[in-house]
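Just curious: can you write whichever protein you like plus the matching structure tokens?

***
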Amino acid sequence: MGHTREHKDIVAGRQRESGFGLASAFAFSLAAFCAFAAAGAETPKNVAPSTVDTRYFADSAGRTFIPVGCNICFPRVYSPDKPGSRAECEAKMSGWLRKFAANGGNYVRIWLGHPFFEIMPCNAGEYDPSAESSLKRTVALCEELGLKIKFTLESFRTVHPAGEEGPEPYAAFFNRPLYAPYAKSMREFLNSDECGRIYLGKAARLKALGLGDSPAVVCWEPWNEINCIGGWRDDVGPWSDRMLAALRTMFPRQMTTQNLGSFSPPDIYDYYDYLGRLPLNDFMQAHRYLDPGAELDVCRGPMDILCADAVRELLDRRPDRPAILAEVGAVKANHAGPSELYERDSAGMLLHDEIFAPFFAGAAGCGQPWHWDHQYIDGNGLWWHFSRFAEAVKGVDPAAERFRPFHTETRRLRIWGLRGTTTTLLWCRDKSNDWEGELVRGTAPSTISNERIPFGGTLKCYLPWEDRWTDVAAGEPLPDFRRSIVVRIMPQGETSKAN
């Protein structure tokens, strides 16, 4: 693959050209790392929890930043042995990012452990210049488009030697033979100094490539769904502490956070308790899917309730941190693959709820869907849903408003609300319309007419399915709408910046 040999002594742990001493860094105690990170806390971050209201984000200039986000993690069809595959997949990534940005998107997640972006694919300290070039071009494009990036450093779940991945789905994708000489299991990996140095060596290389200085890069998460590598909380926790501290030291301009598997079985609760206790976790995030095989009832019900409940769980654990629904979508039972509902959801009613519900339930940004590629969003041409959310929150400053989420219902609507100092925002969802009715039974959404809501004040209404604003006088019914409507309630005599 045309690998270059750089930092040959990585496993020996000597000082690297990148300027980060891996052996000495890994040898620091957690307390030393935390002290070092605290000493560099004055470095302004590209995006960080707002000093006005720490449940929301602000950019380096102090302006509130609402993440309009999506997982656009990797090109799924990349094949390193297929001629032209890298150029083809770069074009795919570019196309997705451009469509997303053109529709109001401003925040993406990218996996650096996927073969397309894996800069250290085969041996410790050997780097692939083609992957590095693709990564740098992707970051440059995000800078051009105004997109912020959260990087996920790793995602593997086994360390079998090459060719011994096993029969499990996506076995080769989730196996890292590179670590096989140093660990026979993931538990050994988590407790191995050698593996820690190699892992941090990859991070140091990314820093040397300039990712720590890019204004587009705002966050590093050490692992995708780290609890899925094994049930060893006593090992996962200390490893996360060490790596979050190391990454925070290495990348002072960017946030650090950890994430866990889908919030769907009962035994995940204490893992999320652990996540809430992580001292270097800049914000809370959850993954949750509509899953007919899930143990929790909420994961089999209406999508808006599923999303709002996940946000509530995060805010219950850390009410002083931003909460993000960082992966959301629909799957076959027990995550056996993308949901069959996607083929029927050409309008994107699932996507609409995934995007809108989390923010109006108190999250710092919209829900961030998975299945961005041909299986759903891109294949059905649904990027426009992000523009409808961006329009709905245009001119809103949730940190300045110090929004407090609430929920109520009328006979016809579920109302997810944010009560602020000057403005109240409502997202009203038709209770009679859900995925089971529309996508399984084929019942078209009905028109809601003459609906009144139990709130006073001047109303400005946005119809996201029509992309239209309209004013409503106090006491008058809402305009006719289908599926949902956004309502801004302001004191008498005040006007909105919405349009």
Observations:
- The first strand starts at residue 4 and ends at 5.
- Residues 404-490 form a domain with the Immunoglobulin-like fold (CATH 2.60.40.1180).
- The mean pLDDT is 89.
- The radius of gyration is 23 Å.
